[in-house]
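Researcher: Structure for this, please.
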Amino acid sequence: MMIDTHCHLDAAEFDADRDAVHAAAVAAGVERIVIPAVAVDGFWGTKSTAERYSGCVAAYGIHPLYVMRAGETDLSALRQWLAREKAVAVGEIGLDHFVTDVDPVRQEHYFVEQLKIAREFDMPVLLHVRRAVDPVLKQLRRIGVRGGIAHAFNGSRQQADEFIKLGFALGFGGTMTFDGSTRIRELAKTLPLESIVLETDAPDIPAAWLNGGRNSPAELLRIADALAELRGLSRNAVVAATAANARRILPGI
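Model: Predicted structure, token format:
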């Protein structure tokens, strides 16, 4: 059975047909879906979605693209949620240097403070690292946490190895399915299999066959097939290995 380690099933894009989306994922063999929150005012939605649908689990954090609407009390709120609610990780947290209208200093502040909270609760983290792999690694070396997942990994082999040394797995999903994503496909092919987990990031990062349409967790099966083809392995071998990796990195699932 497969584990989607990053899926925003609580997103508004699924409001009209969330039941059907979840049912299709289960039918495709998705056993667990990790739903990361992106802002404190969405925590209730993340919690209710995870509780409503079988196999779903929640993570709580403040996404780097949402820090402009966050306040210091949100960090206190995150701490309170983690103290009383079931969660498998702190996330989605990190840095995004691709988007230019979000203050990088403010991003770093909230990232650092959330790493400290993760360390306090001894929880893994789900990392957003777009165009910011080295700054994220810098803070991870400074503020040690118990590992986690570098979601939608898009860095170099050297950077991948640094994450692995720090106890992280690397998330691969729709981007890996494009023939033009040569660097990411090479990483998916050659990295140690025990360092890879599967994800969709639904409704975002659609696979090649979706032609830019809405992504969904049911696509994880074909994403697993893409990884199996790249590595010359069977689907069952890839599914078993990546699920075991997810359970090791996120023991709460």
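Researcher: Any notable elements?
Model: The chain has a mean pLDDT of 97. The chain has one domain: 2-249.
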